[in-house]
Amino acid sequence: MTTTTPALIADSASSGFRHGTIEQRDLRPDDVRIDVAYAGICHSDIHTVREEWGTAHFPLVTGHEIAGTVAAVGDAVTKYKVGDRVGVGCLVDSCGECEMCRDDHENFCTKGSVGTYNDQGYDGEWTTGGYAQQVVASERFVLGIPEGIELSQAAPLLCAGITTYTPLVRWGAGPGKKVAVVGMGGLGHMGVKIAVALGAEVTVLSQTLSKEEDGRAFGATDYRATSDEQTFKDLRGQFDLILCTVSADLPVDKYLRLLKTFGTFVMVGLPENPQALHFGSLIMGDKVMTGSNIGGIKGTQEMLDFCAEHGIGATVEVISADEVGDAYDKVVGSKVRYRYVIDTSTITPAA
Ligand code: NAP
Ligand code: ZN
To answer: Which sign, positive or negative, has the C-alpha torsion 282, 283, 288, 289?
Structure first.
C-alpha cells in the first residue's frame, strides 16, 4: 500500500523539475510521516541530478535538508508524536547492528546506509527526497528540531550544518585555534557560524570580497579573496585547520601552504573531477589532509541542540517550487546567499 504526495520530479539530468505526484510507503510500525515545510537546496542535489557524480536513477526527487512537522506515526514509534517539529537529513536507513552503527556512525554502516534520495532501501524501493510535501522515514533517522530555530533556517542544518560541525569538532576548532573556511556558500557559511560558536578565530577565503560584510557578521575576523595572489603570501603558515567547502576544481597545494606545521586540511566539497596533489605539500610540515562525510544521527541531534543553544540557524532565501531551476544556476554561479530553501506548499500535484 502507498500514499500519494505532491513532489518536484526530475525526469532526466537535463529536464529540470516538474510538479507531479509520487507514491510513498504506508507507515511501518517504526515510521514517521512528516509534513515537509521546507527543503534546502544542497549543491549535492545539483551534482546528483545533473549526473556529475555518475548515473542517477530517474524519475528523481532530490532534497536531504528537510524540516517540517510530524503528520502521523506508526504503532511502535516512541520518540515523536503528531505535531512535533522534526527534520530528516541525508540518511533514512542503516543496518543498526554493525560496529559503525553501534558507534553512531550510521553514515558508514558496513551493510551500506540508505541515502534519502537516489538510493535503494533494503526493501529494494528507490528513495525519494524532500522536494515533496511529505516524507516517510524510520524514527531512528528523524531528528528533533529545537524550538529556538525557525523551520526554514533549520532545514539546511540537516546537511550543511552537520557536514561542517562534524570535522570542526573532530579536528579541534575552538579557543586558541585559527580556522580558515574556504568557500562561503551553503556549507561554508554554516562552517563560519559553527567555528565561531566553538570559539575559534575564523578567516573566510572566498573567491572575491563581495560577501565580506556577511562573513564578518557571521563572526569571521578576517576575510580574504583567493583571486588575489597576495592572500596566499600573507596567510602562509597561519592556520591550525582549513575547512574546504569548494564544489569546483581547486589548487590544493596552494591551500596546504596556508597550514601551520601539523595543521589539518579537511575537504568536504566534492567536485566532479579528481584533483592534483603534490605530496611535498603534506611532507613539509607533517600536515594532515582528510575528508569528512556528513555525520551520524546522534551527532546530528547534538549539532541541532548546539545550534539552538548558540542561536544559530542557516541564512536562507525561501523560494517557491517554480524558482528551483533558477536557484540551481545561482548556486553553481556562487550567487546563493546562503541557502535556498523551497517552501514545499508551493508544489502542486500536476503541471
Ligand atoms: P555552494 O553553496 O555552491 O558553495 C560552494 C562554494 O564554493 C561557493 O559558494 C563558492 O564560494 C565556492 N566555489 C564555487 N565554485 C568555485 C570555484 N570555481 N573556485 C573556487 N571556489 C568556488 O555548495 P554547498 O551546498 O555548500 O556544497 C559544497 C560542496 O560540498 C559540494 O561539492 C557538495 O556536494 C559538497 N557536500 C559534501 C558533503 C559531505 O558530506 N562531505 C555534504 C554536503 C555537500 P565563494 O563564493 O565564497 O568563493
Ligand atoms: Zn547536502
So the answer is: positive
